[in-house]
Structures are given as structure tokens and as C-alpha cells.
Specification:
globular; 9-stranded antiparallel beta sheet; 166 residues; 9 strands; alpha+beta; 39% strand
Length: 166
């Protein structure tokens, strides 16, 4: 997988060439333990704090902490407010979490500890699981999500490193 730096960021998020145009990923090294980063991601109430798309406004229902099979809702806004129900489809404590909504496509976070205090985080928008793949192209979802992922990773880095330094 080849990487290219985020041209819109002063941080070090990098686009990853997945070899599949329906799978978009980026990664960043965060100077915080994987468990701490996982904890940020596993709490839906935190999602608006690091969402790079600017569409997640709040957690609307579900558990305080996500686990495999958990269902949770997010209040969103793209022009008008709406809600999305998501289900956690992949989960490995401290290493992996992925969820999907009705459309079937997934958002995935993979955490690879580099040291006790440094973690490589990869975020992926996976359209291969979509129930209607042509809709993702019509909505420009691949390019939009690539930009959002870069911003999300930069924000997740800021939050995690800020928490780790306190």
C-alpha cells in the first residue's frame, strides 16, 4: 500500500492506496497508547469531537461504549438534520472497530501499537459492503470521505495527544 501525505493538513495523516477504488483509507501516527485512542472511538458521545466531515452533531441513542453488535444512533446534518442508526460489525478491543448503517458500507478504525505510547491509526471508508454501490459514486462518497478521513485523523490525533499529555 502506497501512502501520500495530506495536502490539506499540517499533521502527518497520509492517504493509503488500498488497490481498490471502493475502499478509501488514510493513516496517522498518534503519540498516545492504543487503549486510550480506542476508548475515544468506542464512546459515541466523542464522535462529534473528532468527526472531520462536519456532519456528526451528537450521539442520539445507544450504549455509552461500543462493543460488537452494538446499535447506536448519531444525529447528523447535511443541509437538514437527520439521524442515522449504526451497528458495530467488527470489534477487537483496543485494535479494531467498524460500523455500518442501513446503506451497508462501513467506517473502520484499525489501531496498531508501535510502542507503549505511540499508535498507528488507519481509518477506512469501505464501499465494498454497500447494498447499492452506484449510490456512493452518485453522491461522490469516495472523494468526500477521503477528505473527511484526513481531517478526522488529524482531529483524533489532536484529542488523543492532548489527553495523553494531561
Amino acid at each position: 500500500m502506497a501512502e501520500t501525505e495530506n495536502p490539506e493538513s499540517s499533521d502527518i495523516s497520509k492517504i493509503v492506496d488500498t488497490g481498490n477504488d471502493r475502499v478509501r483509507s488514510a493513516r496517522i501516527t498518534i503519540n498516545a497508547p492504543a487503549a486510550d485512542i480506542s476508548d475515544l472511538i468506542a464512546h459515541p458521545a466523542n464522535h462529534p469531537r473528532f468527526d472531520g466531515s462536519g456532519t456528526v452533531t451528537s450521539s442520539s441513542f445507544g450504549p455509552d461504549r461500543l462493543t460488537l453488535g452494538a446499535t447506536f444512533g448519531m444525529s447528523m446534518r447535511i443541509v437538514v438534520p437527520y439521524r442515522m442508526t449504526n451497528t458495530v460489525m467488527e470489534f477487537d478491543e483496543g485494535r479494531l472497530i467498524a460500523w455500518r448503517h442501513l446503506g451497508g458500507h462501513r467506517w473502520r478504525y484499525e489501531l496498531e501499537p508501535l510502542t507503549n505510547s505511540s499508535t498507528l491509526v488507519t481509518e477506512t471508508f469501505d464501499g465494498t459492503t454497500s447494498r447499492f454501490p452506484p449510490s456512493l459514486r452518485l453522491m461522490n462518497a469516495y472523494e468526500n470521505n477521503t477528505r473527511s478521513i484526513l481531517k478526522t485523523l488529524d482531529e483524533l490525533k489532536r484529542l488523543a495527544e492532548s489527553a495523553a499529555s494531561n
